Amino acid sequence: MPTEQLYYVQDTRQYVGNCALWWCPDGNGYTTQIDEAGLYTRERVMTMRDTDRPWPKDLVDAYTVTHVRLDTLKNRTGFGLHCGPLKPEEFLLLLENEMSKAKQFSAMEKFRY
């Protein structure tokens, strides 16, 4: 028995940077993260707006890549803003120190509310 084709649904009215907006599960908002997107049946996508594009799950999954947004990583860690190059051991020492501070801050935040 063949399985039913499922679809990710793109809202084509806008983009976030270079990213598509996908419907979340049960139509509860939108996301740029495909792993947070909902899956919809053919029957359901036939009732959607003309600005909503159903993309077959298998096709989208075949073209999905995982990557790290270096701009976000740099902004959250403060690294990448140094003027000169760092030796790997210097960078790792700085990063480990920063991660230790972040863990302490995160633990304090849990008790803030």
Short structural description:
Helix content is 37%, strand content 22%.
Keywords, please?
single chain, 113 residues, alpha+beta, 2 domains, five-stranded antiparallel sheet, 4 helices, 5 strands, elongated, disordered C terminus
What do you see in this structure?
- With 113 residues, the chain is an alpha+beta fold.
- The chain has 4 helices and 5 strands; from the N terminus they run ββββαβααα.
- It has helices at 42-45, 57-63, 70-77, 88-110; strands spanning 6-16, 19-23, 30-31, 40-41, 52-56.
- Strands 1, 2, 3, 4 and 5 form a 5-stranded antiparallel sheet that branches.
- A hairpin with a 2-residue loop joins strand 1 and strand 2.
- The N and C termini lie far apart (52 Å).
- The model is unreliable at 109-113 (pLDDT under 50).
